[in-house]
Every structure is written in structure tokens, then in C-alpha cells.
Amino acid sequence: MSTYIALTKSFIKSLQMSKSSDKRTRITMKVVVAVVVLFIFVPVAIFCALMTYGLVDGLSYFHIEDLGVAMVFHMICLFSLFFGFNVIFSELYFSSDIEFVRPWPVKAWELVAAKFTVSYYVDNAMQVFMVIASLVGFFFAAKPGVMSYVSSVFAIVTLPILPLCYCGILSMIVMRFTKFVKNKEGVQRITAVVLAFLILVFVILFRVLASSAEDAVHFFVTETNSPFVEYMNRIFPTVHFISKAIAYGSVTDLLIYLLINVVAVSLMLLLSELVYFKGFENLVANGKAKTRGLSQLLESSTMTTPFKAYFIKELRILVRTPSFFTNCVIPNFIWPVFILIILKMQTYDASLPALRVYNLNYPKTVGFFLIVGAVVFSLIMSSLNSIASNSISREGKHFQFMKYIPVSYDTQWDIKVLVSFLLTFIGIWMYLLPACILIHINFIYVLVAIMLSILSITFSSYMGIYLDSIQPKLVWDDELSVLRENTNVALSMGIALGISMAIGAVCYAFFAFLKVRLLLVSLALFVLLALLNLFVLWRTAKNGKRHIAEQEEM
Mean pLDDT throughout 470-494? Predict the structure, then answer.
């Protein structure tokens, strides 16, 4: 046990970003962290609380309050499974510290237990907020007893354990009994299939949760004779028991819940003793990379301009690195899939003919939603893909490459922004522009939306790289750590979400309630985004190069 504790402390400490010695930088980071909490964690918490309150309040009429808690908890478990699989797979098999720990007299279960704890630590921040908020919603909707509060404490701490155990068990089985995972690209193939299924289930469940409590009861109880929650309870049996323990204060259900978690962890650790090291040895044996000699490298090289060479280098890193490709590139091009799924689940007619008719009757309303939606969506997507906000952190141990190549900091900075801009802009408008044409939206509205979208993406991209330059995460074990453990990604996303929410709310209030003309709303957005761009460009010119020059080499 002492070995497990020592390993866990060491692994968790290695996740922490280096602290800046500059007082102004530390203050800035604290302010931005507060923005992240305010505009990411708080909205998610409020959403979960209101959803749980509505479900429990409506379902209490049917005396099945536990069903409301269960539906939200299933969503959280899917969230854990969705984000935990890649984390655990990378921690168990592709973390660089394993090479140093492997020769030590460490048992397989101790190493796996430590890595599992680290994954739980990394993966559990958002889930804790979601669970606490859901429980707050439940307590306002119901009148629980003392045991309900006790059960809630256990739920907050232990709810993600079973989904993460699934991830750990699946990872070890795949690595031990298959040979097609020779590197991280093999992991991405498995992840793509698993996550595609999980996303579909998540969207369906989210749609059900968004409906009214009565509709949920009708869907789950009176229809299909095979309720969705029943199937989810088979996948996550802990949710069934902890929901009853919280809703009805059942001690028996709480004990069964804890027992299932203990059994799940025990099975995972027992399996690790049997297959973990063998799976790791298979990875080493099958993962020998082919190397090319110096003459072959020179023959395959061509001379080009520094700008083009650096641009291609940035694109290749994003496209050829599985974690970056999956998390930074793919989201820009698959978002219409989720939009279509959600639209298909709606009760109203969202077909092209219906949208054309609506546009014909209310052209200014459609123009408003297009223009404001383009701004909000551009801000969110350019921060969500994190291409800019981890652009310096991506350099990692090769950070000194930025300092010594014959390319100015300004040029490198602009190229990184250009890559972020192009992938985001193309990903948005390659779908949105044809949709506007098919719906017959006024060309002027489309042109204004495109121009505002350009300003939005430019601002968000420059802001992201500026934040990453202040305190980049240059020490990381695998590429996924740059995304999951880099606070700059969350900071950029929080600021973009905050600005987006403010723009959307204010513009809607002026247009819908104060009846301000769409032309004036558009002009105000132009001025606002222009000022935001000038501000971030000024901060970049003033401090950007200094941040890079003063950053210590790895």
C-alpha cells in the first residue's frame, strides 16, 4: 500500500503546471481561472441542478423520484466513460514515466491502482460539480432524510469509479489479447468506434432529459416495454442503487452500491496482475518504429519558404498526431452530425421546405439568428477545438525549436493563428454556407455573418495563443495531457463562452424586446469585435514575444 501511495503522489505531482515567478502573471491567471469557473463550471452546474429539479419534481407525482436522479447520473457516467477511456489508456500504456517505473520492484496492481487514481483525479473535476449540482436540485425538489445526505456524499466521491473501471478493464484486455494496437494510432481507432457509440447514446439521453418530466415518464414507462433507463441500469448498476439510496434513504441500496464499486475495482486490479505487464510487453515488442537514414531524409526533403515550411509543420503535427487530430481537427467537421441528430429528435418540422417558408415570412429574424449565431458559434468553436490555446504547449520538449530557427516570433505566432483560423472557418462555413443557399437567406445577411465570423475566430485564436504563451504546459507525458491537463485550454474556452453568452443575451434583448434594427445590431457587433481584436493584438505585440523569450527551455 505504501508503494501505491508513493506512486500516486509522484504521478499527480507530475501533472501540475509550473508556477510563474512573475506576480502580474500569477494575478492574471487567478482572474482568468475565476472567469472559467464563472462561465463553464457554474452554467453546467446550474443546468444540472435545474434539470434534476424539474425531473424529480415532476416524477414525484408518480412516486418514482429515483428515476429523475438516475437519468441525470447516467448522463454523468456516460460523460465519465466518454472522457475517461482515452485518459486511462494513455496513462496505463503511453505515459513516459512507465519506462522509468517498470524496472522497479513494483507489482502490477500497485502501478495500475496508482494510474487509475491519477486518471480519476484528472477526469473527476467537472463530474464532481455536475453531481453536486444535481444533488442540490434533488434536495430542493424533495424532502430527503439523513441517510439521503449520507448517500449523497458517497455519490459525489465515488460515482465515476465504475465507468473508469470499465475503461481500465477494456484497455488491459485490448492490449493483452489483440495485436493491432502497436502505438497511439491503434488506440485512436478503438477510441473512435467506442466514442461514436457513446456520443450517440449521450445525445439520445440528453434529448430525453431536455424533455418534460411527463414526456420522460411516457417514454420510459408507458412506451416500448423496454425502458431506456433499465438498459442503462444494466450497464451502470451502481446508478440504480445509489439513486434509490438518495431518493428513499435506503441503507441496503447504499451498501450494495459500495459493494459493486469495491468488486469492480478488485476485478480490475486482479486482472492487472494477470495481463497488464504482458500487454505492456506486447506493446514494446510490436511498436518498433521504422527509421530512415540521413541520406533517405535528405533525398525526401525539398526546399521551400520559411512561412510555408512552418505552416506545413503545424498542419502535420495536428493531422498526424492521433490525440490532436481527434480532439482538435475532427470536431471542426463533425458538428453537423450532432445538429442533425438533435433536429431529427424535435417535434417541430425542421426540414428545408419548412425553413424556406419561415425565412420567407420572417427574413429579418432569420438574418438575426444567422448573424449573431455565426459570432457565438465562431467564438465557441475556435476555443473548443483548442488549436490556438495549446499551440505553444504542443511544442513540449521541442520548445527550443521556436527560439533558434531563423523565423521570427511574430511569423511563428501568426502561422499558428492562421492554422487555427483556417480549420475553424472552413469547418463552420463548408456546411453553413450551403445551408444558407438552400434556405434562400438574404445574401447581405450571409456576407455580414461571414465577416463577423472572421473577426470572431481571429480574436479567439489570438486570445488562445496569448494565454498559452503566459504559462505553457511544456512538460507532458503524452499528447492528450496537453489538452486535458493544460489549464490554458479551459481558460480560453471560459473567456470565449462568457463573451458569447453576453453577446447572445444582449443582442437578443435589443433585437427582440427593444426592437433595435438588425443593421444597428450588426454595426455594434463589428465595433465590439474590432475593439476586441485590437486589444488582443496590442497585448500580443506588448508581451507575446517576451513570454516566449523568457520561457525556460525544457
Answer: 79
Instruction: Name residue, grid cell 429579418.
Output: 364
Q: How many Cβ atoms from other residues are within 10 Å of residue 328's Cβ?
A: 28
pLDDT tens readout for residues 393-423 = 988 888 888 888 888 888 999 999 999 999 9
Distance of CA 67 to the CA centre of its chain: 27
How many CA atoms are closer than 13 Å to the CA of 8, on its beta-carbon side? 17
Q: Cell numbers of 551, please?
A: 520561457
CB-based burial of residue 409 (10 Å sphere; 0-12 exposed, 13-18 middle, 19+ buried)?
middle
Q: Annotate 484-500 with DSSP letters as a single string.
A: HS-HHHHHHHHHHHHHH
Burial group, residue 447, by CB count within 10 angstroms (0-12, 13-18, 19+): exposed
Model confidence pLDDT, tens digit, residues 39-57? 777 887 888 888 888 878 8
- Mark out the alpha helices in 103-160 (DSSP H runs): 108-123, 125-141, 146-158
3-state secondary structure of 182: coil
| pLDDT at site 87 | 77
Cα-based distances in Å from 505 to 71, 200, 529: 30, 30, 16
C-alpha cell belonging to residue 508: 437578443
Question: Are residues 49 and 137 in contact, defined by beta-carbon separation less than 8 angstroms?
Answer: yes
Name the residue among 276, 470, 449, 312 with its Cα closest to residue 371: 449
Among 91, 82, 85, which residue's Cα sits nearest to residue 114? 91
pTM of the model: 0.72
Contact by Cβ (8 Å): 150, 254: yes
- The span from the CA of 468 to the CA of 489, in Å, is 8
Whole-number Cα distances in Å, 259 to 127, 162, 237, 263, 264: 21, 11, 11, 6, 9
Question: Measuring CA to CA, how many Å separate 215 from each of 51, 78, 210, 553?
Answer: 14, 22, 10, 58
Phi-psi region at 181: left, alpha or beta (left = phi > 0; alpha = psi -120 to 50): beta
Burial class (CB in 10 A: 0-12, 13-18, 19+), 431: middle
Instruction: Determine what percent of the chain is predicted with pLDDT higher than 70.
Output: 78
